[in-house]
Amino acid sequence: MKPGAEEVHVPINSAGDIVTARQKGRALATLLGFSGSDPTVVAAAISEVARNIVNHARHGEIIIESVNQNGRQAIQVTARDEGPGIPDVEQAMQYGYSTSKGMGVGLPGAKWLMDEFDIASQVGKGTTVTMKKWLR
Amino acid sequence: MHVPILKQGGYLIASIQSVLSDADLLQLRDDLADRVGQFRSRGVIIDVTVLDVIDSFATRTLRGIAHMLKLRGAETVIVGIQPEVAFAMVQLGLTLEGVGTALDLEEGLAFLDTQTKRGSK
Questions:
Q1: Residue of A17, A18, A19 to mutate for B, most B C-beta atoms under 10 A
Q2: Which of A22, A69, B56, B113 could disulfide-link A46, Cβ–Cβ 3.0 to 4.6 Å?
Q3: Is residue B14 part of a domain?
Q4: pTM of the predicted structure, to 2 decimals
């Protein structure tokens, strides 16, 4: 790990862990120099992907870290679970689509909040969401 | 964390003191439903100034609280949504449609006075 680089792991096992994850995300974003509404935006995105784990996979993990690419810094959030997986990722990314009691806002909403968003899912294996926000 | 609910004339004021878990929000909903009946309140203010994030679940729950209290005969106004919290909500496409909002407690009281067409004394 480069000097000054940070990495935080937050296990997600219950709804209470959603709050912990987003607070750690906000703290790291602030530490990295994100300002204005950006720490809140990162925290909101973490809240949505963490909730997705609780609602669909029950258990998982959120990893929040700083990454450097071509001299630019970003905060990267990885939400990983070994839950049932998403059969139709395209459908899951449609705003308003939900298989649970949710609003269907979570994943597409998180994508809107962040600069980069990637989702990989395999039925029976789990889901990994990776998203980044660049320091401006 | 438990949200204290104060009675102020014909209104109830729920002043959120710290970041809330999902369970706390649902508890607040149940508490408010009870108190509105107990005190025959016509208006409810929910102060969310300290909330760090209002995500999809919180939005849905706040909207649910307001609609439920409306069915119980009380108006609800959400006060104190911070600018960056509002910004993130807009980016998430979240709205509090059909729910009153006001800048702060003072504006919230004024809003309820207009909505319920009477003073709170």
A1: A19
A2: A22
A3: yes
A4: 0.90
